[in-house]
Specification:
The chain has about 120 residues and is mainly beta. The chain has one domain: PH-domain like (Roll). The chain has two helices and eight strands. It has a five-stranded antiparallel sheet, covered by helices on one side. The protein has a three-stranded antiparallel sheet with strand order 6-7-8, covered by helices on one side. Strand 2 and strand 3 form a beta hairpin. The protein is globular.
């Protein structure tokens, strides 16, 4: 299916502004085809764009307190992809996302840990 690429938070302010709470800010974001994973200072928003025209959008809002643990796998010598897996309370299988080489996975892990370990 391809790997996610990193997006600049300021590029998403207009698109995600209407769904952000007061005081909520985008920290990091990734795009896979048309879908997006947006990490704010309060939650993870997973946007699933559906249909041929992309006019139908589904938003999953995942408060950080619901995350029980996560895995960040860095790229290896022969495997150039990074991987992110997030387990949520009450859900047996994790949400998974493959990330392109060059994405700051250490920074992503730091962002997740900052909000999960409060």
């Amino acid at each position: 299916m391809g790997n996610a690429s990193e997006l600049k938070p300021e590029e998403l302010e207009k698109e995600f502004g209407p769904v952000l709470c007061e005081g909520e800010q985008i920290e990091a974001a990734f795009k896979l085809w048309r879908d997006k994973w947006v990490f704010t200072n309060r939650r993870l928003i997973m946007q699933d764009i559906q249909g041929m025209t992309g006019s139908k959008k589904e938003y999953h809002s995942l408060p950080y307190r619901a995350i029980t643990h996560f895995l960040v796998e860095t790229a290896g010598t022969f495997d150039g992809d990074c991987e992110l897996e997030i387990w949520v309370s009450g859900v047996a299988t994790p949400f998974k996302q493959e990330l392109k080489r060059g994405i700051d996975v250490v920074g992503l892990q730091k962002t997740l840990a900052k909000y999960i370990c409060k």
